[in-house]
Each structure stands twice: as C-alpha cells, then as structure tokens.
Design goal:
alpha+beta; 3 helices; 31% helix
Length: 87
C-alpha cells in the first residue's frame, strides 16, 4: 500500500457525496473518494502527489455545483483503509 498519498479532507452536504465521488473518480487515476462519516458528510480525497494539482482543479470546478470546505484530518477514524495508510 503506497504511503505517499495526499489526503484532502472535506466537509460537504450528505446529498453531494455521490456526486463528488462520481466526478473525482471519473477522471481515471487522479484520486479516489472515501466517506469517513456519512452523517456528518466527512470525506477524504486520496491522490498521488503528482495528481494533487489536478484533484484540486476538479474540486475547484465543483464549487458551482456543491458547497465544500477543507477540514483538518479527524482525530479518530473508523475506516480500515485510512488506518492501513497511516500504519
């Protein structure tokens, strides 16, 4: 498992989770979206360092479609993949 992934933590509206996931992952190879907390609509976008600029460009292009803001990494996570990445 690569450990050099860039993590971009976001808070969005719950109804926008599927849209975000669809749009980011439709650009094959730039990133994947993990939902960390469905109720609070906390997600993380994982990207390789060389795709960070592209991911941020996609996120910026979504500002007209959805409201999102970047947050610091949550202290506690209940996501097996994120735990694997951290270890």
């Amino acid at each position: 498992m690569p450990t050099d992934l860039i993590e971009i933590y976001l808070r969005i509206r719950r109804e926008d989770i599927a849209l975000l996931k669809f749009v980011v992952e439709s650009y094959e190879g730039i990133g994947i979206v993990r939902t960390l907390d469905r109720k609070r609509a906390t997600v993380v976008v994982l990207a390789m360092p060389d795709a960070t600029e592209d991911v941020r460009g996609v996120l910026d292009s979504l500002r007209d479609e959805m409201e999102w803001y970047e947050i610091p990494p949550p202290v506690e996570q209940d996501d097996w993949l994120m735990e694997e990445i951290k270890s």
